[in-house]
Amino acid sequence: MIFNLKKSICTATILVLFSCTHKGNEYNQDVVVFESDTRGKTIGFKPTSDQIDQAESRLFDYLETQTELNQTIYIYTLGDKEPLQDRLKFYKRRYFGAINNEGEKIITIEFVFVRCGGHEEWKKIGYTNHKTKSCWWSVKYSLKYDRIYDLKF
Q1: Which end of the chain is least crowded, N or C, by CB within 10 Å?
Q2: What are the counts of helices (DSSP H) followed by strands (DSSP E) for the chain?
Q3: Has residue 51 been placed in a domain?
């Protein structure tokens, strides 16, 4: 009984601390992190939580900067046009780490719209090869250069 209470308190504390360190619009907790991307020919690595947080933060900063420069990236949902950064909370994340030929670590983030991924299908590495391709988009993040690039809708 006491063990279960301690476990519950510990879990609640972690959830509170996690929610305090992340902005509500920029991070979705429904994620899968892959050890490597077997779809390509690069050497893979499993991104750490800190690396993922860094990539997510940089993506949100990138989108905000685009908006400040009057180059807002929009998503069309049910006939409405909204800035992408306002819709990030509606996407599940798939993270892949890769090391390119120059030894640079790159994290690819694939975003899957919540209504498209099914229950478990979106967690399969080959998911994006299916007919659901219109329900996802991706971006790359360079750990070495701390920059977002290769945004693909």
Answers
A1: N
A2: 3, 8
A3: yes
Total-model pTM: 0.74
Number of domains in the chain: 1
82-104 confidence digits (pLDDT tens): 999 998 998 999 999 999 889 99
Nearest to 29 by CA among 83, 85, 87, 91: 91
3: in domain = no
What distance in Å separates the CA atoms of residue 18 and residue 16, rounded to the nearest whole number?
A: 5
CA-CA distances (angstroms) from residue 10 to 3, 7, 14, 22, 24?
10, 5, 6, 19, 22
The answer to whether position 45 is within a domain reads yes
Per-residue pLDDT of 113-123, as tens digits, reads 887 877 787 88
Flag whether 2 is in a domain.
Answer: no
Structural domain span for residue 102? 25-152
